[in-house]
Amino acid sequence: MLNFFKKKQIDPREQMKAVLGDYELPSFPVIVMNALEKVRETETSNSEISELVATDPGLSVRLLTTVNSAAYALKHKVNNIDHAVSLMGRGELESILISMAVHEVMPVENTPVFNAQRFWGAAAHRAALARELADLIDPSSRSESFTAALLQDMAIPILALQRADDYGPVLERWYANGIDLATLERETFGWDHATVAMWMCDNWGFPDRIAEAIGAHHGTRDDELVPLPAVSLVSFLREQEEAAGVEQLVEDAFENYNLPRDQVLDLVDISFAGAKDMARMFG
């Protein structure tokens, strides 16, 4: 269980059941679960991890495609799994594996107000920009910022599908009016998608830092829940159109982190262009 829930004596599985009823989160693919287990074992060598990942051609291709995408912005091309493991390190590899696993098990069905391709396109934009912003604010958080930004709204597809009757109209209002979605959810239901996503993080065994960044990306009043600045900034980006939310993001970056507006706008252009390949892959 995540440390945050232990301290608060909260049972996230019970909380999720209250919101989603009998719905059960799908399990990650076995190969990814095994790879994550190896990554987290200090006595496992890099070559053992590489050999395991390489046994699944599909996983290998997706991993190399992700890290070589312009959105990930590596200085040198990664040619094989051995190279990826040695170059990225275990923490970064863990983050990428989690990202791919979540995408693999997410619902793909569209609803009258939810479009999966649009959703993952916006997620790719957030992830690419969060990585660039983290370089300026806290370079040590680059990989976690990328993954948390990509997955910060991962509860929305499930809520849109499982609670279409009452959650669908809330999404529709958000798309139409640009109101802060978390605020709208709290007013309507007493919970928000960031909280539900954090319950999901616990269920799937996410690292605490990524889980807390996802749970706090719309702000938090709890001092024990630690946000990542870059993830919170990109939460301003909305799905309606590519530029939706950019102005708010730029102003917040200037006011709270003293980042020059022109520099942030340049990063938006660079990261959005770089995210196109990844958006197509995830979409």
Structure description:
This protein is mainly α. The protein has a domain at 3-24 and 108-282: Hypothetical protein af1432, CATH 1.10.3210.10. The protein contains 17 helices and no strands. It has helices spanning 3-8, 12-20, 30-40, 46-54, 57-68, 81-88, 90-105, 116-137, 142-151, 155-162, 164-177, 181-189, 193-204, 208-215, 229-234, 246-257, 261-282. The mean pLDDT is 91.
Give the arrangement of secondary structure elements.
Blueprint: H1 3-8, H2 12-20, H3 30-40, H4 46-54, H5 57-68, H6 81-88, H7 90-105, H8 116-137, H9 142-151, H10 155-162, H11 164-177, H12 181-189, H13 193-204, H14 208-215, H15 229-234, H16 246-257, H17 261-282
CATH class identity of one domain: Mainly Alpha
What is the N-to-C succession of helices and strands? HHHHHHHHHHHHHHHHH
Number of strands: 0
Mean pLDDT metric: 91
Number of helices: 17
Gross morphology is globular
Write the CATH fold name of one domain. Hypothetical protein af1432
Largest sheet: none
CATH superfamily of one domain: Hypothetical protein af1432
Quick recap:
This protein has 283 residues and is mainly α.
